[in-house]
Amino acid sequence: MSDKSISTHDAMSQASGSRYFVLEHHPENGTLLGFWLYLMSDCLIFACLFAAYAVLGRNYAGGPTGAELFDLPLVAINTSLLLLSSITYGFAMLEAQKKRLNNTLIWLVVTGLLGACFIGLELYEFIHLIHEGAGPQRSGFLTSFFALVATHGLHVTFGIVWLITLLFQLKRHGLTTENNRRLMCLSMFWHFLDVIWIGVFTFVYLMGVLP
């Protein structure tokens, strides 16, 4: 084989290799599928925490009960804030579909503020309980209560950090395909936290005030 033929063969091999890498792309809906798997694993974590509360929820060890500690009006306000934030995030998604960047940013900011208010009231509740001597070390009931509610609160805090990061990405790059995918993932995460909180509100707070 001549040198010219070898050179031609090498060039074709390189071109073929280049085409291989060019054609390689991000699998369609791969990110959403992976994120669904993550949410399922998160469901298992919360399922364990709910199970622990179901076992320890009546173990007061001579300490205060849920009926004595829980401030239902405050918790109802907090619940309303989180559910309202889910609605405002839905508005942001609608504006994103219409390619209205500024309106999308505004609704995301409103969502973040509502989430921050939720965390603020939850911290106020925790501080008040600890000040009353009802910290997580007081009884099995309070240990499981703080573990479940605080884990949810940490998730909301992470969601707010994620939302702030996404705001900067949207401001810099606009409603690109990648940012729309990130918006969708955060939407799934945020609505997931709403569903978990409805379970917490019903199973922990409403049932906790029953005799």
UniProtKB/TrEMBL annotation:
Ranges of residues in domain Heme-copper oxidase subunit III family profile: 28-209
The species this protein was found in: Undibacterium rivi
Gene: cyoC
Name of the protein in question: Cytochrome bo(3) ubiquinol oxidase subunit 3
The protein's assembly and partners: Heterooctamer of two A chains, two B chains, two C chains and two D chains.
Keyword list, A-Z: Cell membrane, Electron transport, Membrane, Oxidoreductase, Transmembrane, Transmembrane helix, Transport
Membrane topology: Multi-pass membrane protein
Function: Cytochrome bo(3) ubiquinol terminal oxidase is the component of the aerobic respiratory chain of E.coli that predominates when cells are grown at high aeration. Has proton pump activity across the membrane in addition to electron transfer, pumping 2 protons/electron.
Similarity-based family: Belongs to the cytochrome c oxidase subunit 3 family.
Cell compartment(s), UniProt: Cell membrane
SUPFAM superfamilies in the cross-refs: Cytochrome c oxidase subunit III-like (SSF81452)
Bilayer-crossing regions: 35-55, 75-92, 104-124, 144-168, 189-210
